[in-house]
Structures are given as structure tokens and as C-alpha cells.
């Protein structure tokens, strides 16, 4: 009998990649979506799987809808990818960010505990929880959290709630502490996609400037399609646990910019990029870099797509979008 998985956040970036991966393994995939008058399935369309997923209505801020879905589906696995995931936006919508990212996880875990206790649960945690936390230039599973945004704070609450339900109630719950991961379907508000989209517009003559914030920030960037495999592997182990997932390399925003412009034959990127104070955050994280010994040793997972190929893939996809 085919396994069933419920994926929240199915319309985002990771949801479609995970759904495609699970479908390839024979899963029946349920995707939870909020009630929209006109839901946007573009990301699922991009991967060609829109009609292969069964959609159910639900909202992370509405506990009754989560209970209904858990009771009706009785999923083997739940992947909680739903979040207000834009760090910059969390400063302006701190309450909403907390309700979705923190309390929503509590509601979902309560539903599993009460109505489907054998369900395995994956929580999408984030490197933004570490903030200023540092272990010799890296962050791993033992690094202290010191979040620097309402987003990071909400995710720390969700992380410890996931651990608490594992330790208190014996549920199979895992945290995947994923470092930055990107793709051609990354949201346009995120800096990587903002760069590749802006470069494509400039190359096509649709814009002449790209407005960015802090170019010196360094992040550990990988490909979302690789990272969803780690999510799945976590729920296939004998015992639940928490894992840092990343590449172990860090690159600055400026490096990303340089590669993107170079790929389209515009070597002097400084002619096009304007630093805009509007995009500076009240508190910055200067560098994040994953120490991935545990995920490699226990799950046997390693990233496949290198940084340069990731930038190229995203630029190519945005160039193609402007050909139509």
C-alpha cells in the first residue's frame, strides 16, 4: 500500500520539489492550501506535477482545520513547510509570523498527538535560528541559537516545540535545520531570486538598475531540489533526530551578483547595482555556514549542485521567463 504524505506550504518553493520527489517514490501526496479566490500553482506547474497532488484546505493559524486534515488523512508522514518565510517581512508582520511559524506548529503537533500519533513529523527549521551563534566559523546541531529577527525567533519556538513533543509524548518528530537553499522557483522577494530576475531584466533591456541591501552578508547557499531528499531521509530512520543541512561553503551576496552578471556577459556589475538603505535590516547576520558531519554520517546525504551551477540555473530560468 502506498505511503501517504501531507505537505503544508505546497505552493512555496520547497513544497513542489518535495512533492515531486515523493511522487517519484510512489507516495500519495496531499498538499494543504489556504482558501484563495485564485490560488497560484505556478511553482507546481514549473515542475509539471500540479494535477498529481490532492489538495486539502487548511491554515496554520486555524487549529480546527489542521485537526480535520490529520483525522481525515491519517498520513504516514507530515512535512511542515508552511511559514511566513521572508525574514525582511517578519519585522513588519511580527505577530502574523509568530502565529503561523510558532503557534501553527504547536497546533499541528497537537493534532498529530491526539488523532494520528504514529505519523512521522518533519519541521522545516532554519539557519536563521543561529543568528550570532557560532562554532569556529560554522554552525552545527550543538551551536547555540541567537536569532536576529522575528522570523528567527518564531522558528526557535517551533524547533523546541518539535523537540518537546518527541521527548514528552514519544512522537517521531524531526527538525531539519536547513541553510539557505534556492531554485528557479524561489520567491521573487528573496535576494537570490531578486538578483537573477533583475539581471535577466537588465539583459533583456527591461530595466537598467538592480537595487539591493547588504552585499557583504555571507550565506551557505544550496539547491532546494537536493535538500528535500534530506527531509525525506530524516523520516526513514529508526530514531528521530535533528539535522543541520547545508553545503559547508559560504558566499557573499556580492559573489552571487558577480556570477549572475558574468553569466549574461555583463562583467562590470557595479554599473547596474545600487545599494538601497530601504533593504537594510534592523539587525543583520553577517555569515552562516553549515557543519554537516551528522547529516553526511547518519543519512548519507550530500548536496549535488555546486554554487556556480545554482546561480547559472536560476539566471537561465529567469531569462527564459522574459522570452515570452
Structural class: alpha/beta
Outline: globular
Q: From the alpha-carbon coordinates, what is the Rg to the nearest angstrom?
A: 19 Å
Give the distance, in angstroms, between the N- and C-terminal Cα atoms: 43 Å
Work out the count of structural domains: 2
CATH topology of the largest domain: Rossmann fold
Number of helices: 11
| Average pLDDT metric | 95
CATH architecture of the largest domain: 3-Layer(aba) Sandwich
Percent of residues in beta strands = 15-25%
Layout: helices, strands, pairs:
Layout: E1 4-8, H1 14-24, E2 28-33, H2 42-46, E3 54-57, H3 63-73, E4 77-80, H4 87-90, H5 94-115, E5 120-126, H6 150-169, E6 173-178, E7 181-182, H7 191-203, E8 210-212, E9 218-219, E10 222-223, H8 224-234, E11 242-245, E12 251-252, H9 253-263, E13 273-275, H10 293-299, H11 307-321
Parallel strand pairs: 1-2, 1-4, 2-3, 4-5, 5-6, 6-11, 7-10, 8-13
Antiparallel strand pairs: 9-12
Give structural attributes.
single chain, 324 residues, alpha/beta, Rossmann fold, UDP-galactose 4-epimerase, domain 1, seven-stranded parallel sheet, two-stranded parallel ribbon, 40% helix
Describe this structure in words.
With 324 residues, the chain is α/β, with parallel strands linked by helices. The protein has two domains: 4-181 and 221-245, Rossmann fold, CATH 3.40.50.720; 187-219 and 250-286 and 306-321, UDP-galactose 4-epimerase, domain 1 (Alpha-Beta Complex), CATH 3.90.25. Helix content is 40%, strand content 15%. It contains eleven helices and 13 strands. The protein has helices spanning 14-24, 42-46, 63-73, 87-90, 94-115, 150-169, 191-203, 224-234, 253-263, 293-299, 307-321; strands at 4-8, 28-33, 54-57, 77-80, 120-126, 173-178, 181-182, 210-212, 218-219, 222-223, 242-245, 251-252, 273-275. The protein has a seven-stranded parallel beta sheet with strand order 3-2-1-4-5-6-11, with helices on both faces. The chain has a two-stranded parallel ribbon with strand order 7-10. α1 (14-24) packs across α8 and α7 runs parallel beside α9 (253-263). The protein is globular. The chain starts with a strand and ends with a helix.
Amino acid at each position: 500500500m502506498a505511503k501517504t504524505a501531507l505537505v503544508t506550504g505546497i505552493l512555496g518553493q520547497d513544497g513542489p520539489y518535495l512533492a515531486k520527489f515523493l511522487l517519484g517514490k510512489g507516495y500519495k501526496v496531499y498538499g494543504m492550501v489556504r482558501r484563495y479566490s485564485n490560488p497560484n500553482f505556478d511553482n507546481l506547474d514549473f515542475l509539471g506535477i500540479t494535477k498529481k497532488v490532492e489538495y486539502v484546505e487548511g491554515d496554520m493559524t486555524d487549529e480546527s482545520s489542521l485537526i480535520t486534515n490529520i483525522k481525515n488523512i491519517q498520513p504516514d508522514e507530515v512535512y511542515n513547510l508552511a511559514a511566513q518565510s521572508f525574514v525582511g517581512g517578519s519585522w513588519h508582520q511580527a505577530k502574523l509570523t509568530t502565529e503561523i511559524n510558532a503557534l501553527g506548529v504547536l497546533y499541528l503537533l497537537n493534532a498529530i498527538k491526539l488523532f494520528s500519533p504514529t505519523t512521522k513529523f518533519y519541521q522545516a527549521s532554519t539557519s536563521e535560528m543561529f543568528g550570532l551563534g557560532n562554532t569556529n566559523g560554522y554552525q552545527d546541531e550543538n551551536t547555540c541559537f541567537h536569532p536576529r529577527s522575528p522570523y528567527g525567533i518564531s522558528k526557535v519556538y517551533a524547533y523546541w516545540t518539535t523537540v518537546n513533543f518527541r521527548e514528552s509524548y514519544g512522537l517521531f518528530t524531526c527538525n531539519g535545520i536547513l541553510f539557505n537553499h534556492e531554485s528557479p522557483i524561489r520567491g521573487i522577494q528573496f535576494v537570490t531570486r531578486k538578483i537573477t530576475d533583475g539581471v535577466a531584466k537588465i539583459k533583456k533591456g527591461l530595466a537598467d538598475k538592480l537595487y539591493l541591501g547588504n552585499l557583504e552578508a555571507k550565506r551557505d547557499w544550496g539547491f532546494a531540489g537536493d535538500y528535500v531528499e534530506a527531509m525525506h531521509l530524516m523520516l526513514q530512520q529508526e530514531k528521530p533526530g535533528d539535522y543541520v543541512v547545508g553545503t559547508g561553503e559560504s558566499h557573499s551576496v556580492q559573489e552571487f551578483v558577480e556570477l549572475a552578471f558574468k553569466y549574461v556577459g555583463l562583467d562590470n556589475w557595479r554599473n547596474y547595482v545600487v545599494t538601497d538603505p530601504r533593504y537594510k535590516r534592523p539587525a543583520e547576520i553577517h555569515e552562516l555556514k553549515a557543519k554537516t558531519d551528522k547529516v553526511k554520517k547518519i543519512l548519507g546525504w550530500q548536496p549535488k549542485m555546486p554554487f556556480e551551477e545554482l546561480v547559472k540555473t536560476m539566471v537561465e530560468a529567469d531569462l527564459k521567463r522574459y522570452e515570452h
